[in-house]
Every structure is written in structure tokens, then in C-alpha cells.
Amino acid sequence: MSSAPITELDLHAYVDGRLDADRRAQVEAYLADHPEARVSLQHWREQNQALHRDYDGVLNEAIPLRLSTAVKAPSWPRGLAAGLAWLACGLVAGWFAHAARPLTPASMTSTASTASMQTAAGFARNALAAHVVFAAEKRHPVEVPAAQEAHLVAWLSKRLDAPIRAPDLQTQGFILLGGRLLPGDDAPLAQLMYESGDGERLTLTVRHAPQVQAETGFQVMEKNGVNAFYWIDRQYGYALSGSLGKTRLLAVANAVHAQLQP
Q1: Are 131 and 46 in contact (CB under 8 A)?
Q2: Sequence-ordered list of residues with C-beta below 8 angstroms from that of 227, at least 6 positions apart, any chain
Q3: Which of 71, 100, 158, 254 could form a disulfide with 223 if both were Cys (CB 3.0 to 4.6 A apart)?
């Protein structure tokens, strides 16, 4: 009897070490014939490592005594105890959301719908996390170098199922290093990396949606000294990430936006 097809859930379970021996062997046979899947797995592993670096300290903190005592109290009904457990989960999720919350000054607000803003914010968090992982790479910051720019743009355009462009940022002091493909929540993402003469790196992450989305103005997200300006323009989402100050990064974002206009 033939085995069930390998799905993305199987690949995630493989990365997390949650497959039994038989299914793991099936996934490894699949990976041997699918190099693109191997690339995605490597990205997921690197993102997992980045998340552990950033958040293990919080997750491993001791539970305050007063909370431990409250959970162990035998007189509380089971339903109330379950409710407290869900509340604790919500507090943890809130901590993660707070760590990378979007900042929206009045000059940067837009009339985009709440749903579009939430989608854009989730995309920006992914872009920011990927920037932190790959901008620090010394030997392998990109999959395809700028020397093969035509191939890079054609490859990423094919994978995103939409034409993309690599803006020229030399006037802003940055040259293209190259790019890579990233996994997204519901579709692949393209990451283009740029570097200045003094080694400062920026990444432009691009997302494509099959339908026109509610457009947004520039929004800014900040985490641990790294900023990302992100916006939605018709069927595309863009996020420019870097450790530059907000003023300088906004100037580069404006240059990117101007070049990507039809």
C-alpha cells in the first residue's frame, strides 16, 4: 500500500522532531528528490533558532509563587482552572505580540481596513525575524548573489507567481548583495539584501497576494533596535528592515516605494 503524500504539516513535524521512524524515513526520501523543500526546512530551522535565542529566557523564567499556589488551590472548580490556563496562554501570546508591536504615529496612519492591517503586521513580523537571522550571516547571507541578478529576479518572480524588481539603492548608499526565498504564512516571500560601504545591511521583503488588497501607508515596527517600514501596494506587500535610525530608514523606504511604482 502506498504511503500518504508528504504535506507541509509533515515537513514542519520533521523539523520539530515529532515524526515516528517510518514517517520520518518517508519525508527524508521526499526531501532527497525535492531540493526546494530542503531549502524551506533550513529556513524554518534557522527561524526556530532565532526564536529560541530571543524568547527562551522568558519562557524559562520561574513561575511566581503566588501563581503556582493559585493553580494548585483544590477548591476551585475545574472550569475556572481551565479558564485560568487559557488566560495564561493569552498573556504569553500578548508578551510576544508586545515585543514586536507596530508603532503607528499619526503622520503614518491610513484608512486601510483592520483585516489588511493585521495581515500587514503579521507579514512585517516575519520579515523582521528573517532580517535578524540572515543579515547577521557572514558567509551565506543570500542564496543567489547579485552577480546573478537577472536569474535571481526571474526565480523569485516565478516562485511568487508575480513579477518583482530589485530597486537600485546606490544613491542611498546601498548595493544589492543578492536574495533568497522565504516561507510565509500562506505564500512564499522574497527577500532582497543590500549592504552599505561600512557593512550595514538592509533587507527588502516582498509578498504577493492573488487579489488587490486594501492599501496602507507606511507603518513602522520595532524590535530590539531593528526597525521595519512596511506597506501594502495593490497586490504586493513590502517590508524594509534594518538597524538604521527611523529617519534614514524612512528615506530609503520612500526611495524603494518611488522606484516600485508602475
Answers
A1: no
A2: 220, 221, 241, 242, 243, 244, 245, 246, 249
A3: 100
Residues 93-136 pLDDT 10s:
444 444 444 444 433 444 434 555 667 788 888 899 999 999 99
Q: Under 8 Å CB-to-CB from 218, ≥6 apart: which residues?
A: 108, 229, 230, 231, 250, 253, 257
Pick the CATH number of 102-259 from 2.40.70.10, 3.40.50.450, 3.30.200.100, 3.30.1330.30: 3.30.200.100
Contact 113, 121 (CB under 8 A): no
Question: pTM (2 decimals)?
Answer: 0.58
Task: Return the C-alpha cell found at 95.
Answer: 508578551
Strands 236-242 and 174-182: unpaired
Domain map (residue ranges) of the chain: 8-59, 65-98, 102-259
Residues 6+ apart with CB under 8 A from 65: none
CB atoms within 10 A of CB 246: 14
